[in-house]
């Protein structure tokens, strides 16, 4: 057997992207450690739609049944106005036709819990806030706020929109005159939101929970700049996301300075409570029509309500030397459609495939530069496309004439047109496939029931172009398999 020493990967950030990357590296037998600044897991977040792109991935991991146990099938999305009147309904049957898999809704905390169970406990280090990093000839060294240091071959920044890894990387590149102008600008945002999940409720008291399908709807404010999205879960909870649309674009730095000048608490508990108080009266459709958002807030533990800024930006710089970025650390997408989480998971698959191809440790800078260049070439255009799509989708919830026109077009466009739009969209066609794991069920190839009739039925393909990360990893997998075979 080949006994070469595989590279060691350090992942900063234990979000969905970081956990999935750790899971994939564990399956490949690659050494890794995950560093999380928080001392405990806080079950925050709303729900995420998951379908044809992600279900086959969990099948490869042997987690498809576990995934479906924490999810509810999603067949339609209903949109209401402020008067609780149904505006239009979007069906998800076209997605199933193209991908061969139903759409599902899963609560983010439940998905997080599923992924973290796949990581050996000794590989997750909590209360580890990274301060500095140092590139050495034979690796990279990171120092934590508690004084501890760690060394590895690759550093992955999966630590969210305010990524410390990105800040340290950009500081160095800026000092060297190598950081592009666009990446020096602040993360802009036009919306802020509250997210929450109720405690487990009694289905007899809340009949919507008895439905085997996910009840997924949105209430669009016209007179008020709010959008409320609600979904039910198999855990008999209700997840909710309240999005507030701002009149102008801002940034975190601008808000921090404003708060200093006004001595306002800003993003603290008082700010959360203020936003809750001013939106309690938003009506929720269904039942006897007497339920408001305030009722859901009262059913939600206070510590599970969080307020966040919804930045929107795709950075141009994703890597340098032995450092690479993943997920929100490098692209922050509007939550419309739940695409940010899926985008991070797609990043993780591509990066895991490419790390699998690396030669034995120690690695050279040339090795990591070639690896990360391939990763950027594959994932950067996809992130830009997702940003543009999410911005277009978010227009359906805007106030005024533009929002009204967008909703009218969405409502009146025939399904056959939507099917054509989805069919040529690369984010629908791409399938994240792990090259070194057993392939998903191959029954029902392209054009047959079970895999979908769209071009995406070709594994690893986007508009007919096979993903380079999969091809490179598959080639290495086959070569290693024959090298390890003893006649």
From TrEMBL:
Coiled-coil regions listed: none
GO molecular function: FAD binding; monooxygenase activity
InterPro entries named among the record's database cross-references: FAD-bd (IPR002938), FAD/NAD-bd_sf (IPR036188), FAD_mOase_fung (IPR050562)
Domain FAD-binding: 8-173, 305-383
Gene3D superfamilies: FAD/NAD(P)-binding domain
SUPFAM superfamilies documented for this protein: FAD/NAD(P)-binding domain (SSF51905)
Keywords in alphabetical order: FAD, Flavoprotein, Oxidoreductase
Family membership: Belongs to the paxM FAD-dependent monooxygenase family.
Record protein name field: FAD-binding domain-containing protein
Species in which this protein is naturally found: Mortierella hygrophila
Lineage of the organism: Eukaryota, Fungi, Fungi incertae sedis, Mucoromycota, Mortierellomycotina
């Amino acid at each position: 057997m080949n006994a070469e020493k595989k590279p060691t990967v350090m992942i900063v950030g234990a979000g969905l992207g970081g956990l999935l990357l750790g899971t994939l590296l564990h399956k490949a037998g690659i050494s890794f450690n995950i560093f999380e600044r928080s001392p405990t897991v806080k079950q925050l977040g709303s729900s995420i739609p998951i379908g044809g792109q992600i279900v086959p991935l969990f099948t490869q991991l042997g987690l498809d049944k576990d995934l479906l146990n924490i999810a509810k099938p999603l067949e339609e999305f209903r949109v209401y106005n402020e008067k609780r009147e149904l505006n239009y309904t979007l069906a998800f049957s076209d997605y199933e036709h193209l991908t061969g898999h139903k759409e599902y809704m899963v609560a983010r905390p439940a998905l997080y819990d599923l992924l973290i169970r796949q990581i050996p406990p000794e590989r997750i280090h909590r209360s580890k806030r990274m301060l500095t990093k140092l590139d050495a000839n034979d690796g990279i060294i990171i120092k934590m706020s508690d004084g501890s240091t760690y060394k590895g071959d690759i550093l992955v920044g999966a630590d969210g929109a305010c990524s410390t890894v990105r800040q340290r990387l950009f500081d160095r590149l800026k000092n060297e005159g190598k950081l592009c102008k666009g990446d020096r600008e602040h993360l802009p945002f036009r919306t802020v939101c509250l997210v929450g999940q109720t405690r487990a409720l009694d289905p007899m008291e809340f009949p919507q929970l008895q439905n085997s399908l996910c009840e997924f709807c949105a209430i669009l404010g016209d007179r008020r700049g709010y959008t409320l999205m609600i979904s039910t879960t198999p855990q008999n909870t209700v997840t909710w996301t309240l999005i507030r649309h701002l009149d102008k674009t801002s940034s975190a730095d601008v808000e921090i300075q404003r708060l200093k000048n006004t001595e306002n608490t800003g993003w603290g508990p008082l700010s959360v409570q203020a936003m809750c108080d001013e939106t309690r009266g938003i009506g929720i459709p269904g039942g006897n029509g007497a339920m408001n958002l305030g009722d859901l807030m009262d059913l939600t533990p206070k510590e599970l309500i969080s307020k966040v800024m919804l930045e929107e930006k795709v950075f141009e710089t994703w890597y340098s030397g032995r450092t690479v970025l993943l997920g929100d650390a490098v692209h922050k997408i509007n939550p419309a459609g739940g695409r940010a989480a899926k985008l991070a998971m797609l990043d993780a698959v591509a990066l895991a495939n490419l790390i699998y191809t690396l030669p034995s440790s120690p690695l050279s800078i040339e090795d990591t530069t070639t690896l990360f260049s391939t990763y950027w070439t594959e994932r950067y255009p996809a992130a830009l496309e997702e940003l543009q799509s999410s911005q277009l989708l978010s227009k359906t919830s805007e106030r005024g004439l533009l929002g009204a026109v967008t909703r009218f077009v969405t409502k009146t466009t025939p399904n056959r047109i939507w099917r054509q739009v989805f069919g040529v969209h690369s984010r629908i066609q791409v399938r994240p496939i792990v090259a070194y794991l057993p392939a998903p069920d191959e029954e029902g190839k392209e054009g047959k029931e079970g895999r979908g009739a769209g071009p995406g039925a070709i594994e690893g393909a986007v508009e007919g172009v096979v993903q380079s990360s999969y091809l490179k990893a598959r080639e290495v997998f086959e070569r290693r398999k024959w090298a390890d075979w003893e006649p």
